[in-house]
Design brief:
151 residues, alpha+beta, OB fold (Dihydrolipoamide Acetyltransferase, E2P), 5 helices
């Protein structure tokens, strides 16, 4: 009979690993939002949370980042793409005009996490971000979730 191998000694998973594991297996986590893990590394507080959008004036310049939960390109919208971006404080509505979409197509269509630069647009109580530019949030956790996208 072969001797039993000693049990492996593993360090306990950290909060980032637990959230990543939750997203990879279920698409969500009750432990926290992946953006809460990334927030401290974002450029000196320049990237706003969704909650902060409510306090910004109409047409104010803004950067916001988050996990893409929905991408929509309705036929009736004349090439405008709507993206719902979720962070640890809520959901932002991004409006991506056709010229920006064409310039940033691979990022818009394929990045699970985005940083959007644009301007606040207010219509009554509704707050949108009209996007001027988009970039992938490369150092965001690999969460394995999938957005609900247009085809």
């Amino acid at each position: 009979m072969a001797p039993a191998e000693p049990a492996a000694r593993l360090e306990p998973a950290g909060s980032a690993e637990l959230v990543q594991g939750d997203y990879a297996t279920t698409g969500l986590s009750v432990r926290g939002h992946p953006m809460a893990l990334v927030r401290p590394t974002l450029a000196g507080g320049r990237v706003r949370t969704v909650r902060e959008l409510d306090r910004l004036a109409d047409r104010a310049p803004v950067e916001v980042a988050g996990l893409v939960i929905v991408r929509q390109r309705p036929e009736t919208a004349h090439g405008i793409v709507f993206v719902s971006l979720e962070d640890e404080t809520g959901i932002a509505n991004l409006v991506v005009m056709p010229d920006v979409y064409e310039r940033c197509r691979p990022v818009v269509r394929g990045s699970p996490f985005l940083v959007a630069r644009g301007r606040v647009e207010r219509t009554g109580q509704v707050v949108n971000v009209r996007v001027d530019g988009l970039a992938p949030l490369a150092f965001a956790p690999a969460v394995g979730g999938h957005s609900r996208d247009f085809r």
